[in-house]
Amino acid sequence: MARNFLTRSRHGTIYYFRRRVPDDLRQLIGKSFLHKSLATAHRGTATIVARSYATRTDALYESLRDMKKQKTDGLRTDYTFKIDLDSLGKPSSYTFDAQPEEQEAVNSHIKTIIESSSARRSEAPPGADAKSFDTAIAEYLKRASGKPQTKATYLSKFSHAQEFFGGKETDILKLDQTDLVRYSEHVLTTIGHVTTQSHYISVVAAFLNWHRTRSAGLGLLTTKTLIPKKDTPEGDDRDAYTLIELGQVFLNASKYRNTNPSKFWATVATAFLGCRIEELCQIYIDTDVVLDSEVNVWYLSFNAKPARGR
């Protein structure tokens, strides 16, 4: 039920509790909807807090209806909610009563419940099979969604994390949020570029979360506040090549002139045409590659005319 009252903020970063006010109480309350920020981007945590607000609004609506029936001048409401959480983070029991003026106490109690629940969700349930890095990596590459070429680029990130966490036999299901924080700090000191740092942290977090949710039903680890922020323009990400470095690029490309022409032309063409390889791959052979019959030279024709049939 609580999930029915969840909405996201305009930017999709924070969950809100939003519940419609019944028609018979709308005039009395003066609003069509009740809404409040849940101050979290984690859906599981938001669901727990929303459950408490759902129960409290149920009590509010019931009290208001009783007041209308009794035609009393005053209103006194007891707010009661119950959140059940067992040792695996699933329902057990919490009950708390509060008057409207005890808002601070209610919020404090909710926070205690959430923190307790989060701590429990970070532990692998009894009987969960240990999962080493080697086993986890092989399973992820085989079963996780994504292009094989993309997943192949993750291997260096997995190896980097595996080395940090202490070898092939480390049980990844025992790694928690504190471990991810330690790893992110390690990335910042061992990986030089901010974009690459972000990639290492996000890839390893996604890898751990994939196994946590499928193998043990654990809560998600978050990279919020761990991903470093870029403070430089895109153009300043890396220094331009020097003439010596450019010479090495072309010298390397020349080795493929006869054995692998595509490597040679991908380097030479983009350098002289001033376009990216992605743009070069979008040309239409039948319209954009033209032969000048007078001099017997092929050239690329870039213009505003749309390609035939496009």
What keyword list fits this structure?
310 residues; mainly alpha; 3-stranded antiparallel beta sheet; two-stranded antiparallel sheet; 12 helices
Descriptive account of the structure:
The chain is mostly helical and 310 residues long. It folds into three domains: 2-121, no CATH class; 133-234; 243-300, no CATH class. Helices cover 49% and strands 10% of the residues. It is built from twelve helices and seven strands. The protein has a three-stranded antiparallel beta sheet, covered by helices on one side. A two-stranded antiparallel sheet has the order 4-5. Strands 6-7 form a two-stranded antiparallel ribbon. The model is unreliable at 83-94 and 117-121 (pLDDT under 50).
How much helicity do the residues have? 40-55%
Helix count, DSSP H or I runs of 4 or more residues:
12
Number of strands: 7
| Computed structural class | mainly alpha
Tell me the series of helices and strands, N- to C-terminal. Answer: EEHEHEEHHHHHHHHHHEE
Round the mean pLDDT to the nearest integer and report it.
77
Strand content: 5-15%
Q: Could you tell me how far the N terminus lies from the C terminus, measured between alpha carbons in angstroms? A: 49 Å
Q: What general form does the structure show? A: elongated
Could you describe the largest sheet, including whether it forms a barrel?
3 strands, antiparallel
Radius of gyration, in Å, reads 30 Å
Low-pLDDT residue spans = 83-94, 117-121
How many domains, as an integer?
3
Q: What strand line-up does the widest sheet have? A: 1-2-3
